[in-house]
Protein 1
Amino acid sequence: MDDSSPLASFSLTHVHYNANDPVSYLCAWLALVPQALCVIYATLIWSSREAEIVLMGLGQFGCEVLNFALKRLIKEQRPPQMNGKGYGMPSSHAQFTAYFSVSLSLFLLLRHTPLPASPSHTPFSIPQRLFLSFIALVCAAVVAWSRIYLNYHNPLQVFVGVSAGVVSAVGWFGVTEFLRRKGWVQWGLDTWVARELRMRDLVVEEDLVAPGWERWERKRRDMKGGKGGVRDIQKKKR
């Protein structure tokens, strides 16, 4: 590599903050929340193959595309105190986390209808789902506030970002509800591609750990049901 070549900063994870301010340091970590959520999306989609998570992820991607378009349409600069790259209107962090928190809340409160409790599983109650939704919304609000504290955005840019995220979440929730009612989601799950990928739609009625946990509980009961436990089962296999 030519030593005279200018070096560039990888802005995706590069954050300006005041090293002498603990709050500013915390806000710098909060700037990485969208990247962390992307990792969570990818992990859950790969491990669970749940249609609801895929739909939510598609909506999140669409929300980011909307933010990309709005920034280049409005072309409003960031606050003068910040030398960050790109336009500032609307805040992508605020929009991203607003979409995620509102989408999660809508799912927990309006779409998630858990099956009755079983010996190995107790579903989340309404108060528990309200609490989780509240925590998600508070976390989104803190991330949005942190963008103002770090001078990456002014209050109006953050407000527009939050508004765009909320509108995107509510709008996409309505679209997916329509697709569910009309049978399009089930049609997609019956396609060859979805079957090959082992896509499913269980999280609407049960949590992500319930199926695997119940299988494990049955296996434990089977092992303990034998006279000699695991050793007895191993002898029978021989």
Protein 2
Amino acid sequence: MEEEQQLRTHKKDVANDSDDDDPPALSFHALAALKEFLQEQSQSLANHETVETEGEGSEVALVTEDWRLSQFWYDPETAQTVAQEVLHLCSDSNYKVACIACPTLYAYLKKIDPNISAQLLEYDKRFEQYGSDFLFYDYNQPDLPLELKHTYKVVVADPPYLSKECLEKVAQTISFLARPEESYLLLLTGEVQRDRAAEILGLHPCNFRPQHSSKLGNEFRLFTNYDPMERLGGWEKEK
């Protein structure tokens, strides 16, 4: 919106400064607005991250975060750690994995193991580039195919907002996707959701602390419904 206003200002100034004989010229204010706009665009391109997966010798390309969608990508260590945990859970069988609103994790999983069966449920349609692995997902109005019901042995979720309402709705999606007999649930969300994660989903916090490429003010945690033992630092001991 701010960029559109700057461009409209630019066009207006050009129109005011032009006459019938001379070519259009930019006013001082229009030049300043244009310079600021170009700087913002340059920064946006710089934020189109390319990170390297440790030990793989390959790169994981991530689209630019869109703060309007509350998007904050994991840093490489976090993405690698969580991806390795998911792969460990899938090591004994060809389990299917559901990634709810965590495209960074999906990208790392597919880079490390291209054959893993992973479904990305995501609101941002830029991730349609993943083809049939992408499924548009609006947590307010989830419209999920019935064939996905109780299909996934491993479900990882990163709700976009730190509210009770958002967590409750995402929890409904988790219940729809996860196998009822036994499934592994991993939830990445803020520390402020600790009590709700326990109450709504029966999850416990791990000692491993997720980090993001963009430094956030809120402390983030990883919660699971199973004891990872020595992995992920294990469950945090109750005080």
